[in-house]
Amino acid sequence: MSDPPGARLWNPRDAFAEVLRAPDERIDLARSALLIAAEEYPALDIARYLARLDELAREVAPRLLPARTAAERVAVLNRFLFAERGFAGNREHYEDPRNSFLNEVLDRCAGIPITLSLVYMEVARRAGVEVDGVGFPGHFLVKHGTEDLIVVDAFFGTVLTREECQVRLAAVLGAAAQLRPELHLRKASAREILVRLLGNLKVLYVRSADFGRALACCERILLVAPDAPHELRDRGLVYEKLECFGAAAADLERFLELAPDDESAAAVRERLATLRPRLRQLH
After folding, report:
1. For residues 37 and 125, what is the distance between their CA atoms, to the nearest angstrom?
2. What is the CA radius of gyration of the chain?
3. Is the pLDDT of residue 28 over 80?
4. Mean pLDDT over residues 4-10, rounded?
5. How many other C-beta atoms lie within 10 A of the C-beta of residue 226?
6. Which member of 20, 122, 190, 266 has the lowest number of beta carbons within 10 Å of its beta carbon?
7. Is the pLDDT of residue 67 over 60?
8. Per-residue pLDDT tens for 163-179?
9. 249 with 275: CB under 8 angstroms?
10. Residue 86 DSSP class
11. Left if phi > 0, otherwise alpha if psi is -120 to 50, otherwise beta: which for 227?
12. Which of 187, 188, 185, 169 is nearest to 177 (CA)?
């Protein structure tokens, strides 16, 4: 695997920040996801994996030409990606961080809902089919069509009915939750998708006490969504774990300025109360 041109000077974090300068509708999601992966894989050949998506699209595009309806187009895409190419959810090792890196998903044809959805979206777009991501509660999905809307679960390789979406929603939000397509099935923005992808990684790293990598996720989320209160809070808590007490206090104080009535605010005030004596000891 070859290094990117000028690899000694090339910094994936800087490149990621540069991508984010574009308006949301012009953000290259595949490239952005690969830039996220490049911090874990410094020699990552991004062009190679973008070419892999192009290749998949070239293979499926001729099969889509006879399709006239959303259902027919989805059937072609599903058969190609899931049955023929074998993309599937990694059920046995769901929390393997590799499931969140697009290069690994393309190499192993296994991932989690959001990365498999990303493959689906990018292959479809390159083949001339508009497919949107859906930040459904608990499980990322994709959709195609308008009046004849089709919802696809790329993790399980299935089409979901409205009734199945309702059952899933109730399982996550409670029995009283009612499916509202304009809310629960709305198109996710590029920035929302990147935040969710990085958020998944952040949770995995926090659970495994890998706070250095968790901090890297927090920092990139805040590049996507500066001053997002909960992300500032989370970065502050990670800083505390890394014994960077000044940075931790600054983030937690900023969180309280932005979200003083948040349900976690009381707990954050308690954390700050324990941090301040440590800060005084450093002076």
Report:
1. 21
2. 21
3. yes
4. 55
5. 10
6. 266
7. yes
8. 999 999 999 999 999 99
9. yes
10. -
11. left
12. 169
